[in-house]
Amino acid sequence: LGGSGSSANNNIQNQILAYLSNSASVTTLGAGSVSVSATDSATITGHVGQGSLSVGAGGFSGGLTVQVALVNNLISDVVSAYAAGASVNSVGNVTITATSTSQITATLVDVMATIAVGETGSVTLGGSGVKSTNQVTSTISAYLEANAGVAAVGVQVLATDSPQVTGSAGNGQVGVGAGGAIAGSLTVAASIVNNTVADSVSA
Asked: Which of 6, 71, 195, 202 is most buried, judging by how many CB atoms fall within 10 Å of its CB?
C-alpha cells in the first residue's frame, strides 16, 4: 500500500494607495507637474511535485497507491490612486494613475508507480488526482472626487490592468502486475486546472 498528498496555498491580499486628500494643497512653479501613482506587481510562482513507488511480492501479490496534490493561488489586491478634498494648481500636467501587473505561474506534477509480482497471481491498483486553482480578483481604480479642485495645463486619470495566469498540471502512472494465472493492472488519473481573472478596473 502506498499513499501521499501534498498541497500549497499562496495568497496575496494587499492595499496599494496613492492619494491627495484632507484639504491638501499642492502648487507647482516653473514647469512642474503633479503625479499621483499607485503600482502593483504582485507575483506568485508555485511548483509542486510528488512521486511514489509501491512494490509487492509473494504468493498472491497486490499493490495499491493513491495520491492527491492540490495548489491554490490567489491575488486579490486593491490598487487605487485618487485626489479627494485636495487643491492642486499646476503649471504643468496632473496625472493620476493606478497600474496592476499581477502574475501567477503554477506547475503541478504527479508521478506514481505500482508493481506487484506473485507466484499465483498479482493485481495492481493506482489512482492519482491533481488540481490547480489560480485566481486574480483585484480592484484597480483611479479617480478625481467632485470636491477636488484641479487647475492644470492637462489632466490625465488612468487605470490599467495586465494580469497573467499560467497554470499547468500533469500526472504519470505506471502499473505492473506479473506472475501466476491472474495478472492485472488498473490505473486512474485526473488533472484539473482552473484559471480565473475577475478584476475590476475603473477610472
From this structure: 71
Residue type for position 180? G
pLDDT digits (tens, 9 = 90+) for 7-42: 788 999 999 999 998 888 888 887 788 999 999 999
Using H for helix, E for strand and C for coil, what is the string for 106-155?
A: EEEEEEEEEEEEEEEEEEEEEEEEEEEEEEECCEEEEEECCCCEEECCEE
Distance CA 10, CA 6 (A): 14
State residue 53's pLDDT score: 56
Q: Within its chain, how far is the Cα of 29 from the centroid?
A: 45
pTM as predicted: 0.77
Do 15 and 77 contact (CB within 8 A), yes or no? yes
